[in-house]
Amino acid sequence: MIVRQVEVTVKMCLRYRKLILIVPTVFGLIFLLHNIINVEIWKNHLVSALYKVQNRIQPSNLSETHQAFHHKRTPYCPHLAQPLSPEEELEERNLLDLIAWPQPPFGSEAPNLSQTSDPLSSPLLIDDGKHWFVGDQLEVNILMRDFNGRPKRYGGDLLLASLHSPKYGAGVAGQVLDHNNGHYSALFPLLWEGPARVKVRMVHSSEAVAVLRRLREQRPDRVHFSSIFGQGSRSEKMVCNMCLPPDQGPLCNFTDLHTGDPWFCYKPKNLSCYTRYSYVLEGSPENIIDSNEAWLFRSGVNLKVPIHASTSNAIIVLPSRKGDSTQKLDHAKVATSGYYYQDIWRSLGGVTKRQFDGASITQCLTNKLVYMYGDSTMRQWYEYLVTVIPGIKEFNQEGGVKVGPFMAIDLTHNILLKFRFHGPPIVSRTAVMARKLRYIANELDGLTGGPDMVVALSLWADFAPFPLEMYLHRLRQIRKAVVRLLDRAPGTVIVIRTPNPRAQKRDLVLNFSDWFSLQMDTVLRAMFEGIDVLLVDAWQMCVAHHQPYDLHPPGVIVKNMVDMMLSYICPPFE
Fold first, then answer.
1. Measured between alpha carbons, how far is 226 from 405 in angstroms, rounded to an integer?
2. DSSP 430-449
3. Is the preceding peptide bond at 104 cis, omega within 30 degrees of 0?
4. Residue 231: strand pairing partners
5. Do 255 and 306 sit in the same domain of this protein?
6. For residues 570 and 364, is the Cβ–Cβ distance under 8 A?
7. What pTM value is reported for the model?
8. Using an 8 Å Cβ cutoff, are 251 and 262 in contact?
9. 306: nearest Cα among 545, 550, 123, 178
10. Same domain, 540 and 470
11. Domain containing 565 — which CATH number?
């Protein structure tokens, strides 16, 4: 009760502050008109954006991808086979085209393991005799070979590339192009002078990706959950998931009435569906792949293994040449959102990033409400802000240790921070109270919004094991709520954090591969393009840094992400 009163007090302070300040009405009308126009055109803009991004993706067999997608929707999840609007149907087809991936020629047959991609025998080629200058674009070539030492004749390997200068704390992500014949190119903008080293890793072979695709389409049950139903001294533990076969027992339907997001549990034998009170991850079934397929996911052999240069992976970048360097730099920036220098992220285009400490964060967020929704990667942002803002105090809201909800308040400066986890699925072995779980779209619909409110979202980490249409449905409902919020409250600041690569451990990779994360990253960017939000490019910020990949990036990267958000909220004075 005290916490609720404090939160109401903060909101009242902000309302009274608005009455005192003189805000020109004309600006409010301009903002309102601007957002109304945006709401009317965002669908058409989104479709054109999808085609723009599609043009940068290598072609592949799209019809087979579509057949697999539609085949898996109906038999396993009949409740998801709801008719889509024409706009949603078009968008879904375009999104499937965006993430289409080259498939090995052996089809559904098991590959000959000796003919699969061998990163340790695949050379990385750099032109040794060439001089490079700041503003140039470096192109390196990778020629994939199999374990027999023979060149591969098809593409589909997942490669990640970066260029680093440890001496300067500098790094940039490379753009990898798949020529679909075993030959790959990695492009790097040269943005600083001095020594630098190229790093390319094969995350998965094309044959391993084929296994991951099959698992996503045919085994969406490869993670499972449970809930405790209890009343008095009686309790029953039942299996739960986003989809459950209806022929194995009666179901409790917990599908959200407003968003349509599905969640089911098998009905307890002696208790009502209304007695559910907890939720937890149970685990994954064993032996979902055979021994040959397991060989495709071996650490140090073909799972996130460095590809070595034929001679040296080191280059020297010279100072920029006069005259034409600017033009070349612009060309090199096409697929690069920024780079590190002295461990500080420098954004290329869009937001001009600033450095923030505790005092400047307090100044930026004074009289603001900051609502953070999503997964544990967004919780990192909340925890960072609570750590660095002087004088802020946390209040216990009787939530779970990991999922919240959490709230912190600085009464002196009228700052409110709140974090709440998204609705199920949540990949957590710590029991969560079911009544504490809320869907992000519903939470956004309950916000007043306005220039004094910041909304930060991150939604990806828990959706990797599930069919992609479930992720698309969740994003679509959130996007609709974002558009409604901007429509009724122009000036609301909305920030979305993209997915990032993570450690690819053998026991996790079949459910949480970077290949799944990369595809979620692609569709998330496409779905929110053309809407007035800031996308914080967590993918490139992690690939470009020298630290190992992790689901929860280290503090230096988190600080740079939060500084991007704060720079968007409080841009530098011109």
1. 21
2. S-EEGGG---HHHHHHT---
3. no
4. 234
5. no
6. yes
7. 0.85
8. no
9. 123
10. yes
11. 3.40.50.1110
Buried residues in 346-372 as b, exposed as e (16+ CB within 10 A): bbbeebebeebeeeebbebbebbbbbb
Neighbours of 9 (CB within 10 A): 14
CA dihedral over 461, 465, 466, 472, signed as positive or negative: positive
Range in 64-68, 255-259, 299-303 the model is least confident about: 64-68
Annotate 120-144 with b (16+ C-beta within 10 A) or e (fewer).
ebbebebeeeeebebbbbbbbbbbb
What span, in angstroms and rounded, lies between the C-alpha atoms of 407 and 396?
7
Residue 432: closest CA among 236, 283, 279, 282: 279
Asked if 117 and 145 sit in the same domain, the reply is: yes
Q: Per-residue DSSP letters for 194-236?
A: EEEEEEEEEEE-HHHHHHHHHHHHH-TTSSEEEEEEEETTEEE
Q: Read off the pLDDT of residues 55-92 as tens digits, 9 standing for 90 and up.
A: 333 322 222 322 333 333 334 565 555 678 899 889 98
- Identify residue 312 by its one-letter amino acid code: S
Mean pLDDT of 219-247: 91
Query: In this predicted structure, what is the pLDDT of residue 481?
Result: 98
Q: What type of residue sits at position 298?
A: R
The helix/strand/coil state of 535 is: strand
Pair 413, 265 in one domain: no
Q: Domain containing 471: what range?
A: 2-55+359-569
Strands 369-374 and 415-421: parallel
How many structural domains does the chain have?
3
Q: Which helix (H) or strand (E) holds 402?
A: none
How high is the mean pLDDT of the chain?
85
Among the listed residues 220, 214, 216, 283, the one whose alpha carbon sits nearest the alpha carbon of residue 77: 220
DSSP string across 17-75: HHHHS---HHHHHHHHHHHHHHHHHHHHHHHHHHHHHHTTSPP--HHHHHHHHHHHHHH
**Same structural domain, 465 and 555:** yes
Count Cα atoms within 13 angstroms, Cβ side, for 497.
Answer: 34
Alpha-carbon distance of 368 to 370, in angstroms, equals 6
98-150 confidence digits (pLDDT tens): 999 998 987 656 678 999 999 999 999 998 778 999 999 999 999 999 999 99
Stretch 272-300: mean pLDDT: 91
454 falls in which pLDDT band (50, 70, 90)?
very high
d(CA 322, CA 496): 39
State the DSSP code for 278. E
pLDDT for 28 equals: 40
> Is the residue at 13 inside a domain?
yes
